[in-house]
Write a structure and sequence with these properties.
single chain, 277 residues, alpha+beta, eight-stranded mixed beta sheet, two-stranded antiparallel sheet, 5 helices, 10 strands, 19% helix
Length: 277
């Protein structure tokens, strides 16, 4: 695959940054998706998938009109068709700029978040705010069959589509693994996660699929583009009639990111928060 372009030259990620004292929308840093999609052969305006990037933010707080702190958990959804994703460190700094800022009510907070994030992403961003005890945040298990008990030998820790193959009659199944790991494209810090594959097509070789997923262990890229990488390779090598690839990455810095990509017409997966998130 061609070298991934440097889209982080001016990003705050990895730099010493003082946390802001007051609300500042200018902290948000957009990253164009197109530059990272081009090496995968994905053209803007002709996306081979639908999908969203679902973010949970666990360090959200502001002051009410009388100066009393309010805390919440936020869920954001960015459409995969948005021209930009938002760099996570800048997002964290932006959210922390709310800490000493007064808002009349929770609707005012939600409105500001939606306006700022949608402007930077270039498309409408969904915003939900939850009480920290809300049952909607309870963890669940991924559906389907887990691949992790397969007794395989592994000696390749970079993604290789050569491991992927499919044969036989058309089936429908859901598979998942908790062995996903990729690395931050700037700091090199590990990003741990789980990945779920749901497809309709010829039966995918499970051992090959697990070797392929483990191959991301030393790969450096954004969560969103790892999922698009998996989706693109599976479509090319397994040629399923329908495909959904969903990753649930472990929380880091108070944020977790869960992108999903699917063939057009597939139902969205819904929110599936896992214990490690």
């Amino acid at each position: 695959m061609a070298h991934r372009p440097d889209t982080l030259e001016h990003a705050p990620l990895g730099r010493d940054s003082a946390y802001p004292e007051q609300y500042d929308a200018a902290l948000l840093f957009p990253i164009a998706r197109a530059a990272n999609r081009a090496p995968l052969g994905i053209e803007e305006g002709a996306l081979p998938f639908i999908g969203e990037d679902e973010w949970h933010a666990f360090e959200v707080s502001w002051l009410n009109g009388r100066g009393k702190p309010v805390v919440a958990v936020a869920r954001f959804t960015l459409p995969a068709s948005s021209p930009n994703l938002i760099e996570s460190k800048s997002w964290k700094l932006y959210l922390n700029s709310f800490n000493q800022t007064r808002f009349e009510n929770i609707d005012a907070v939600r409105g500001v978040l939606k306006e700022d994030l949608s402007r930077v992403a270039g498309a409408a961003v969904g915003v939900e705010l939850f009480d920290v005890d809300d049952a909607a945040l309870d963890s669940v298990r991924l559906p389907g069959e887990c691949l992790d008990a397969l007794d395989i030998a592994v000696d390749d820790y970079t993604p290789s589509a050569d491991h992927l193959s499919a044969d036989g009659e058309v089936i429908e199944e859901t598979l998942y693994s908790h062995l996903l790991k990729s690395n931050c494209p700037v700091t090199g810090q590990p990003d741990w996660g789980s990945v779920m594959i749901r497809y309709k097509g010829k039966k995918i070789d499970r051992e090959g699929l697990l070797r392929y997923l483990i191959g991301f262990r030393q790969h450096q890229d954004f969560h969103e583009h790892c999922v698009e990488h998996i989706f693109t390779d599976m479509m090319q090598r397994a040629d399923p009639e329908e495909l959904l690839v969903l990753a649930r990455y472990v929380r880091r810095g108070g944020l977790d990111i869960s992108p999903w990509r699917a063939t057009k017409g597939m139902a969205p997966p819904g929110s599936l928060r896992l214990a490690r998130q």
